[in-house]
Protein backbone atom coordinates (compact mmCIF):
# COMPACT_ATOMS: atom_id res chain seq x y z
CA UNK A 1 0.00 0.00 0.00
CA UNK A 2 1.07 3.57 -0.62
CA UNK A 3 2.22 5.47 2.46
CA UNK A 4 0.83 8.93 3.25
CA UNK A 5 4.20 10.48 2.44
CA UNK A 6 4.23 8.78 -0.95
CA UNK A 7 0.75 10.09 -1.81
CA UNK A 8 1.64 13.63 -0.74
CA UNK A 9 4.82 13.50 -2.80
CA UNK A 10 2.96 12.15 -5.84
CA UNK A 11 0.32 14.89 -5.62
CA UNK A 12 2.95 17.59 -5.26
CA UNK A 13 4.88 16.18 -8.22
CA UNK A 14 1.73 16.06 -10.36
CA UNK A 15 0.89 19.67 -9.50
CA UNK A 16 4.27 21.13 -10.26
CA UNK A 17 4.49 19.09 -13.47
CA UNK A 18 1.41 20.90 -14.69
CA UNK A 19 3.01 24.28 -14.02
CA UNK A 20 6.34 23.31 -15.52
CA UNK A 21 4.85 21.85 -18.67
CA UNK A 22 2.48 24.76 -19.20
CA UNK A 23 5.26 27.33 -18.77
CA UNK A 24 8.34 25.87 -20.40
CA UNK A 25 8.81 22.50 -21.96
CA UNK A 26 12.30 21.06 -21.38
CA UNK A 27 13.86 19.51 -24.44
CA UNK A 28 13.11 15.77 -24.31
CA UNK A 29 15.92 13.22 -24.45
CA UNK A 30 16.51 11.78 -27.90
CA UNK A 31 14.95 8.43 -27.09
CA UNK A 32 11.69 10.22 -26.17
CA UNK A 33 11.50 12.52 -29.19
CA UNK A 34 8.32 12.10 -31.19
CA UNK A 35 6.22 10.60 -28.40
CA UNK A 36 2.79 12.20 -27.95
CA UNK A 37 3.52 13.23 -24.35
CA UNK A 38 7.23 13.81 -24.78
CA UNK A 39 7.27 16.93 -22.56
CA UNK A 40 5.66 15.00 -19.69
CA UNK A 41 8.13 12.16 -20.08
CA UNK A 42 11.03 14.61 -20.29
CA UNK A 43 9.96 16.40 -17.11
CA UNK A 44 9.53 13.13 -15.23
CA UNK A 45 12.91 11.95 -16.51
CA UNK A 46 14.66 15.12 -15.32
CA UNK A 47 12.92 14.96 -11.94
CA UNK A 48 14.04 11.34 -11.59
CA UNK A 49 17.65 12.39 -12.26
CA UNK A 50 17.55 14.99 -9.50
CA UNK A 51 15.76 12.87 -6.89
CA UNK A 52 18.59 10.48 -5.81
CA UNK A 53 20.89 13.35 -4.85
CA UNK A 54 18.18 15.15 -2.90
CA UNK A 55 17.34 11.96 -1.01
CA UNK A 56 20.79 12.33 0.60
CA UNK A 57 19.61 15.51 2.35
CA UNK A 58 20.47 19.17 1.83
CA UNK A 59 24.26 19.29 1.59
CA UNK A 60 26.77 21.02 -0.65
CA UNK A 61 27.41 17.77 -2.51
CA UNK A 62 23.73 16.89 -3.04
CA UNK A 63 22.87 20.44 -4.14
CA UNK A 64 25.75 20.48 -6.63
CA UNK A 65 24.61 17.18 -8.15
CA UNK A 66 20.93 18.17 -8.40
CA UNK A 67 21.09 21.83 -9.35
CA UNK A 68 21.58 21.45 -13.09
CA UNK A 69 18.55 19.19 -13.32
CA UNK A 70 16.51 21.66 -11.26
CA UNK A 71 17.52 24.50 -13.57
CA UNK A 72 16.49 22.43 -16.57
CA UNK A 73 13.09 21.84 -14.95
CA UNK A 74 12.59 25.57 -14.39
CA UNK A 75 14.10 26.74 -17.67
CA UNK A 76 15.64 29.88 -16.15
CA UNK A 77 18.92 31.71 -16.73
CA UNK A 78 20.37 30.86 -13.32
CA UNK A 79 19.48 29.04 -10.13
CA UNK A 80 20.81 28.89 -6.59
CA UNK A 81 20.29 26.45 -3.73
CA UNK A 82 21.14 27.77 -0.27
CA UNK A 83 21.00 26.74 3.36
CA UNK A 84 21.21 28.88 6.50
CA UNK A 85 24.97 29.35 6.02
CA UNK A 86 25.00 30.49 2.40
CA UNK A 87 25.02 29.27 -1.20
CA UNK A 88 25.40 25.51 -1.55
CA UNK A 89 25.34 25.47 -5.36
CA UNK A 90 24.85 27.85 -8.29
CA UNK A 91 24.22 27.06 -11.95
CA UNK A 92 23.70 29.36 -14.91
CA UNK A 93 24.62 32.87 -15.97
CA UNK A 94 27.66 34.34 -14.27
CA UNK A 95 27.58 37.77 -12.63
CA UNK A 96 27.11 39.48 -9.31
CA UNK A 97 23.77 37.80 -8.54
CA UNK A 98 25.44 34.87 -6.79
CA UNK A 99 26.78 37.30 -4.21
CA UNK A 100 23.23 38.54 -3.57
CA UNK A 101 21.75 35.04 -3.19
CA UNK A 102 22.52 34.70 0.57
CA UNK A 103 20.77 38.01 1.23
CA UNK A 104 17.72 36.89 -0.76
CA UNK A 105 17.68 33.58 1.14
CA UNK A 106 17.82 35.34 4.53
CA UNK A 107 14.61 37.13 3.68
CA UNK A 108 12.95 33.79 3.02
CA UNK A 109 14.35 32.29 6.22
CA UNK A 110 12.97 35.14 8.30
CA UNK A 111 9.50 35.21 6.71
CA UNK A 112 9.04 31.55 5.72
CA UNK A 113 7.30 32.72 2.52
CA UNK A 114 8.29 33.08 -1.16
CA UNK A 115 10.11 36.30 -2.00
CA UNK A 116 10.17 38.09 -5.36
CA UNK A 117 13.11 40.33 -6.31
CA UNK A 118 12.75 42.67 -9.27
CA UNK A 119 13.92 45.98 -10.72
CA UNK A 120 16.76 47.91 -9.16
CA UNK A 121 17.02 45.52 -6.22
CA UNK A 122 18.77 43.02 -8.46
CA UNK A 123 20.46 45.36 -10.91
CA UNK A 124 23.75 44.04 -12.25
CA UNK A 125 26.36 45.95 -14.21
CA UNK A 126 27.92 42.89 -15.78
CA UNK A 127 27.97 43.40 -19.59
CA UNK A 128 25.39 41.27 -21.37
CA UNK A 129 23.61 40.32 -18.13
CA UNK A 130 20.24 38.71 -18.88
CA UNK A 131 18.93 38.57 -15.30
CA UNK A 132 16.37 41.15 -14.21
CA UNK A 133 14.54 39.39 -11.38
CA UNK A 134 14.36 36.40 -9.07
CA UNK A 135 11.81 34.16 -7.35
CA UNK A 136 13.11 32.82 -4.03
CA UNK A 137 11.11 30.05 -2.31
CA UNK A 138 11.79 28.32 1.03
CA UNK A 139 12.72 24.64 1.28
CA UNK A 140 11.12 23.06 4.33
CA UNK A 141 11.44 19.84 6.33
CA UNK A 142 8.81 19.07 8.95
CA UNK A 143 7.63 22.69 8.90
CA UNK A 144 11.15 24.10 9.36
CA UNK A 145 12.83 26.26 6.72
CA UNK A 146 16.13 24.53 5.98
CA UNK A 147 17.08 26.23 2.73
CA UNK A 148 15.94 28.23 -0.28
CA UNK A 149 15.55 27.70 -4.00
CA UNK A 150 16.19 30.89 -6.00
CA UNK A 151 15.44 31.13 -9.73
CA UNK A 152 16.96 34.11 -11.65
CA UNK A 153 15.62 35.15 -15.05
CA UNK A 154 15.06 38.08 -17.41
CA UNK A 155 11.63 38.68 -15.90
CA UNK A 156 9.59 37.37 -13.01
CA UNK A 157 6.05 36.45 -13.94
CA UNK A 158 3.30 34.97 -11.83
CA UNK A 159 3.80 31.72 -13.76
CA UNK A 160 7.49 31.59 -12.81
CA UNK A 161 6.70 32.17 -9.14
CA UNK A 162 4.12 29.37 -9.17
CA UNK A 163 6.51 27.03 -10.96
CA UNK A 164 9.42 27.71 -8.60
CA UNK A 165 7.03 27.25 -5.65
CA UNK A 166 5.93 23.84 -6.88
CA UNK A 167 9.48 22.70 -7.69
CA UNK A 168 10.55 23.83 -4.20
CA UNK A 169 7.65 21.87 -2.74
CA UNK A 170 8.80 18.76 -4.60
CA UNK A 171 12.41 19.30 -3.46
CA UNK A 172 11.12 19.69 0.11
CA UNK A 173 9.31 16.37 -0.28
CA UNK A 174 12.58 14.68 -1.24
CA UNK A 175 14.32 16.27 1.74
CA UNK A 176 11.48 15.04 3.99
CA UNK A 177 12.07 11.50 2.73
CA UNK A 178 15.80 11.92 3.39
CA UNK A 179 14.99 12.94 6.96
CA UNK A 180 12.70 9.91 7.36
CA UNK A 181 15.47 7.63 6.07
CA UNK A 182 17.88 9.21 8.53
CA UNK A 183 15.41 8.82 11.40
CA UNK A 184 14.87 5.19 10.49
CA UNK A 185 18.61 4.55 10.48
CA UNK A 186 18.98 6.24 13.86
CA UNK A 187 16.12 4.15 15.24
CA UNK A 188 17.71 0.93 14.00
CA UNK A 189 21.07 1.95 15.46
CA UNK A 190 19.38 2.68 18.78
CA UNK A 191 17.70 -0.73 18.65
CA UNK A 192 21.05 -2.40 18.02
CA UNK A 193 22.56 -0.57 20.98
CA UNK A 194 19.60 -1.70 23.08
CA UNK A 195 20.19 -5.30 22.01
CA UNK A 196 23.78 -5.08 23.20
CA UNK A 197 22.53 -3.84 26.54
CA UNK A 198 20.10 -6.77 26.78
CA UNK A 199 22.70 -9.55 26.94
CA UNK A 200 21.49 -11.57 29.89
CA UNK A 201 23.22 -10.52 33.12
CA UNK A 202 22.44 -14.01 34.44
CA UNK A 203 24.41 -15.52 31.58
CA UNK A 204 27.37 -13.21 32.25
CA UNK A 205 27.29 -14.04 35.97
CA UNK A 206 26.94 -17.78 35.39
CA UNK A 207 29.72 -17.82 32.77
CA UNK A 208 32.20 -15.97 34.99
CA UNK A 209 31.28 -18.14 37.97
CA UNK A 210 31.83 -21.28 35.90
CA UNK A 211 35.18 -20.01 34.63
CA UNK A 212 36.22 -19.15 38.17
CA UNK A 213 35.44 -22.72 39.27
CA UNK A 214 38.09 -24.05 36.86
CA UNK A 215 40.83 -21.58 37.77
CA UNK A 216 42.43 -23.85 40.39
CA UNK A 217 41.31 -27.29 39.24
CA UNK A 218 41.92 -26.86 35.49
CA UNK A 219 43.68 -23.57 34.63
CA UNK A 220 43.99 -24.44 30.93
CA UNK A 221 40.24 -25.05 30.67
CA UNK A 222 39.59 -21.77 32.50
CA UNK A 223 41.82 -19.96 30.01
CA UNK A 224 39.98 -21.49 27.02
CA UNK A 225 36.59 -20.59 28.47
CA UNK A 226 37.74 -17.06 29.19
CA UNK A 227 38.78 -16.71 25.55
CA UNK A 228 35.38 -18.07 24.47
CA UNK A 229 33.68 -15.53 26.74
CA UNK A 230 35.81 -12.73 25.27
CA UNK A 231 34.92 -13.80 21.70
CA UNK A 232 31.21 -13.91 22.55
CA UNK A 233 31.14 -10.48 24.21
CA UNK A 234 33.27 -8.96 21.43
CA UNK A 235 30.62 -10.01 18.92
CA UNK A 236 27.68 -8.99 21.10
CA UNK A 237 29.12 -5.59 22.02
CA UNK A 238 30.93 -4.73 18.82
CA UNK A 239 30.40 -1.47 17.00
CA UNK A 240 29.11 -1.79 13.47
CA UNK A 241 26.03 -1.97 11.33
CA UNK A 242 22.78 -3.80 11.86
CA UNK A 243 23.98 -6.86 9.94
CA UNK A 244 26.68 -9.45 10.22
CA UNK A 245 27.47 -12.57 8.23
CA UNK A 246 25.91 -15.90 9.05
CA UNK A 247 29.44 -17.20 9.70
CA UNK A 248 30.01 -14.56 12.41
CA UNK A 249 26.58 -15.15 13.95
CA UNK A 250 27.23 -18.90 14.11
CA UNK A 251 30.63 -18.28 15.67
CA UNK A 252 28.85 -16.30 18.39
CA UNK A 253 26.39 -19.18 18.88
CA UNK A 254 29.26 -21.67 19.09
CA UNK A 255 31.01 -19.67 21.83
CA UNK A 256 27.72 -19.32 23.70
CA UNK A 257 27.11 -23.07 23.56
CA UNK A 258 30.65 -23.85 24.76
CA UNK A 259 30.14 -21.58 27.77
CA UNK A 260 26.77 -23.12 28.57
CA UNK A 261 28.24 -26.60 28.13
CA UNK A 262 30.86 -25.74 30.75
CA UNK A 263 28.03 -24.77 33.08
CA UNK A 264 25.70 -27.73 32.49
CA UNK A 265 28.35 -30.34 31.80
CA UNK A 266 27.16 -33.56 30.15
CA UNK A 267 23.54 -32.52 30.71
CA UNK A 268 23.80 -30.33 27.62
CA UNK A 269 24.47 -31.85 24.23
CA UNK A 270 24.47 -29.81 21.03
CA UNK A 271 25.06 -30.22 17.33
CA UNK A 272 25.51 -27.53 14.66
CA UNK A 273 25.17 -28.48 10.99
CA UNK A 274 25.71 -25.78 8.38
CA UNK A 275 25.81 -25.77 4.57
CA UNK A 276 29.09 -23.96 3.70
CA UNK A 277 27.42 -22.11 0.80
CA UNK A 278 25.36 -19.92 3.15
CA UNK A 279 28.15 -18.77 5.50
CA UNK A 280 28.64 -15.38 3.70
CA UNK A 281 24.88 -14.58 3.75
CA UNK A 282 24.14 -11.31 5.64
CA UNK A 283 21.81 -11.74 8.63
CA UNK A 284 20.47 -9.36 11.29
CA UNK A 285 22.80 -8.88 14.23
CA UNK A 286 22.02 -11.26 17.16
CA UNK A 287 19.23 -13.14 15.39
CA UNK A 288 20.32 -16.70 16.34
CA UNK A 289 21.83 -16.55 19.83
CA UNK A 290 18.50 -15.58 21.46
CA UNK A 291 16.88 -18.66 19.88
CA UNK A 292 19.59 -20.94 21.26
CA UNK A 293 19.30 -19.24 24.66
CA UNK A 294 15.55 -19.87 24.60
CA UNK A 295 16.12 -23.55 23.73
CA UNK A 296 18.50 -24.03 26.65
CA UNK A 297 16.33 -22.15 29.14
CA UNK A 298 12.95 -23.67 28.26
CA UNK A 299 14.18 -26.96 26.84
CA UNK A 300 16.92 -28.07 29.20
CA UNK A 301 17.41 -25.88 32.29
CA UNK A 302 13.70 -26.08 33.10
CA UNK A 303 13.76 -29.90 33.14
CA UNK A 304 16.58 -30.24 35.63
CA UNK A 305 17.75 -33.17 33.53
CA UNK A 306 19.61 -33.35 30.24
CA UNK A 307 18.81 -32.47 26.67
CA UNK A 308 20.07 -31.67 23.21
CA UNK A 309 20.02 -28.48 21.14
CA UNK A 310 20.32 -28.81 17.36
CA UNK A 311 21.10 -25.91 15.02
CA UNK A 312 20.67 -26.66 11.31
CA UNK A 313 21.32 -24.20 8.48
CA UNK A 314 20.38 -25.30 4.94
CA UNK A 315 20.92 -23.81 1.53
CA UNK A 316 17.46 -23.33 -0.02
CA UNK A 317 18.25 -21.61 -3.32
CA UNK A 318 17.46 -17.90 -2.90
CA UNK A 319 17.20 -18.30 0.88
CA UNK A 320 18.98 -19.78 3.86
CA UNK A 321 16.70 -21.88 6.08
CA UNK A 322 17.62 -22.04 9.76
CA UNK A 323 16.17 -24.13 12.57
CA UNK A 324 16.93 -24.26 16.29
CA UNK A 325 15.45 -27.32 18.01
CA UNK A 326 15.50 -28.81 21.50
CA UNK A 327 14.11 -32.08 22.88
CA UNK A 328 12.98 -30.59 26.18
CA UNK A 329 9.59 -30.10 27.78
CA UNK A 330 8.08 -28.11 24.96
CA UNK A 331 5.26 -25.72 25.72
CA UNK A 332 1.63 -25.04 25.06
CA UNK A 333 1.24 -23.42 21.59
CA UNK A 334 -0.66 -20.57 23.26
CA UNK A 335 2.36 -19.77 25.39
CA UNK A 336 4.54 -19.78 22.28
CA UNK A 337 2.22 -17.22 20.71
CA UNK A 338 2.45 -15.05 23.82
CA UNK A 339 6.25 -15.17 23.67
CA UNK A 340 6.11 -13.86 20.10
CA UNK A 341 3.47 -11.27 20.98
CA UNK A 342 5.45 -9.76 23.87
CA UNK A 343 6.16 -6.07 23.29
CA UNK A 344 9.91 -5.84 22.49
CA UNK A 345 9.83 -2.24 23.69
CA UNK A 346 8.96 -3.42 27.20
CA UNK A 347 12.24 -5.26 27.60
CA UNK A 348 12.87 -8.95 27.12
CA UNK A 349 12.29 -12.42 28.32
CA UNK A 350 13.78 -12.51 31.82
CA UNK A 351 16.86 -14.44 30.68
CA UNK A 352 17.75 -12.80 27.42
CA UNK A 353 16.80 -10.73 24.39
CA UNK A 354 13.58 -12.66 23.74
CA UNK A 355 11.87 -14.22 20.74
CA UNK A 356 9.56 -11.26 20.14
CA UNK A 357 12.48 -8.92 19.46
CA UNK A 358 13.96 -11.26 16.87
CA UNK A 359 10.56 -11.85 15.26
CA UNK A 360 9.79 -8.13 14.96
CA UNK A 361 13.19 -7.32 13.48
CA UNK A 362 12.91 -10.06 10.86
CA UNK A 363 9.49 -8.81 9.78
CA UNK A 364 10.62 -5.19 9.66
CA UNK A 365 13.66 -6.00 7.55
CA UNK A 366 12.40 -8.69 5.18
CA UNK A 367 8.60 -8.42 5.27
CA UNK A 368 5.70 -10.04 7.11
CA UNK A 369 6.34 -13.46 5.57
CA UNK A 370 9.76 -13.75 7.25
CA UNK A 371 8.86 -13.91 10.94
CA UNK A 372 9.70 -16.77 13.28
CA UNK A 373 7.75 -20.03 13.05
CA UNK A 374 7.46 -21.93 16.36
CA UNK A 375 6.54 -25.63 16.35
CA UNK A 376 5.94 -26.99 19.85
CA UNK A 377 3.66 -28.99 22.09
CA UNK A 378 3.78 -30.12 25.70
CA UNK A 379 6.27 -32.96 26.01
CA UNK A 380 7.36 -32.69 22.37
CA UNK A 381 10.23 -30.17 22.51
CA UNK A 382 10.37 -26.92 20.55
CA UNK A 383 11.57 -26.10 17.06
CA UNK A 384 11.99 -22.52 15.83
CA UNK A 385 12.40 -21.89 12.12
CA UNK A 386 13.35 -18.78 10.19
CA UNK A 387 14.20 -17.90 6.60
CA UNK A 388 16.76 -15.32 5.44
CA UNK A 389 16.95 -14.10 1.82
CA UNK A 390 20.38 -14.24 0.26
CA UNK A 391 19.82 -11.04 -1.67
CA UNK A 392 20.71 -7.63 -0.15
CA UNK A 393 18.06 -6.39 2.28
CA UNK A 394 15.54 -3.86 1.06
UniProtKB/TrEMBL annotation:
Protein name (Swiss-Prot/TrEMBL): Two-component system, LytT family, sensor kinase
A molecular-function term among this protein's GO annotations: phosphorelay sensor kinase activity
InterPro entries per UniProt: Bact_2-comp_sensor_kinase, GAF, HATPase_C_sf, HATPase_dom, Sig_transdc_His_kin_internal
Gene Ontology CC annotations of this record: membrane
Every Histidine kinase/HSP90-like ATPase domain range: 283-392
Record keywords: Kinase, Transferase
Source organism of this protein record: Streptosporangium canum
Amino acid sequence: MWSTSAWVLLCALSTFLGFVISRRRPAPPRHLAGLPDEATFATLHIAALAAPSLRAGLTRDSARKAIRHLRTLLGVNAIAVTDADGVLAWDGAAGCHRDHAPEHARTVFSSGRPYVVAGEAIACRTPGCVIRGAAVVPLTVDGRVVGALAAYDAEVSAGLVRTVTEVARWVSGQLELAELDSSRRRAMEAETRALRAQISPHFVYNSLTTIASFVRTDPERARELLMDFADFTRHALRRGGDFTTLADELRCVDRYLLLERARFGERLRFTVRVAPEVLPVPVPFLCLQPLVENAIKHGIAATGGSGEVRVVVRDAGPEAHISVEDDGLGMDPGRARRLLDDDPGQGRDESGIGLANVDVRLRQIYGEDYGLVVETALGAGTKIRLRVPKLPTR
